[in-house]
From TrEMBL:
InterPro entries recorded: DUF1731, Epimerase_deHydtase, NAD(P)-bd_dom_sf, SDR39U1
Signal peptide (from-to): none
Family in the record: Belongs to the NAD(P)-dependent epimerase/dehydratase family. SDR39U1 subfamily.
Residue span, DUF1731 domain: 253-299
Cross-referenced PANTHER family: EPIMERASE FAMILY PROTEIN SDR39U1, SUGAR NUCLEOTIDE EPIMERASE RELATED
SUPFAM superfamilies recorded: NAD(P)-binding Rossmann-fold domains
Protein name per Swiss-Prot or TrEMBL: TIGR01777 family oxidoreductase
Amino acid sequence: MNVVIAGGTGFIGKKLTDLLIKQGHSIFILTRDASNKPVKSSVQYIEWLHKDAKPEENLDQVDAVINLAGESIGSGRWTHQRKKKILQSRLDSTRAIINLIEQLSNKPKVLVNASAIGFYGNSLNKTFTERSEPSENNFLSEVVTKWENEAEKASKYGVRVVFCRLGVVLDPNEGALNRMLLPYQFFIGGPLGTGKQWLSWIHIDDAIRMFSFAVCQSDIVGAFNVTAPSPSQMNEFGKTLAGVLKRPYYFPTPSFALRLLLGEMSTLVLDGQKVIPQKAISQNYSYLFPTLPSALEDLLKK
């Protein structure tokens, strides 16, 4: 297939691109600047998001579009300006994707748009599946709702639309796990906040495979939870991590300290939601790492 990727040079995008190439697909990565990009025989870089760019002129036949573009939510305090950038970057890139689809004479069969389990809000006792509505209104839920509403506009062109609602993606070098490792490496790991909050996680290898799965499975439509089938509470996660690292687990970090340090962004580690990937389970997606011990043992070996 010919697959167009926005955000193909980011954390998930780079690994997803490599996977799709191994699967035999041809990749077109949308970028602001196509110069000085690494040369790969199965990858073409197409310029977009500036006034002179006309990406549709270089895309004769597109089978699938994957949109991963957007400002990282975890790389700085959520100031008013930063929250605005987090939302606007997602809306702008998605609108540009819809405009591209509108311009293409041969429409893609599917748009797989990145999303997040932040849609569901936070809860200690509820279990969420793709059929669940948000339990509360907060910043992340608002961002995801507006983001998905923009992506849904592709359906008016006969395009199947999938929202890959990502959980916490575990990778040994980037993202949340890399930050969580530091206190354990100094033998001061322990529970964050109460430890009762849920962590709906996914191994990076399963995350990228689930995006590919969503592209290929024609009956997956709408919300698609990209999480492992066994979410864990933070206490369990920390104890498992300490066990794999052979480190102690007893220095708690109180909630108030994290809120002072991170501000509103502390919700990413202090609040959570128990999310079940019901569609992946019902579609018989085969997880490489369905359990937390297997995932952490693999990741920390790397």
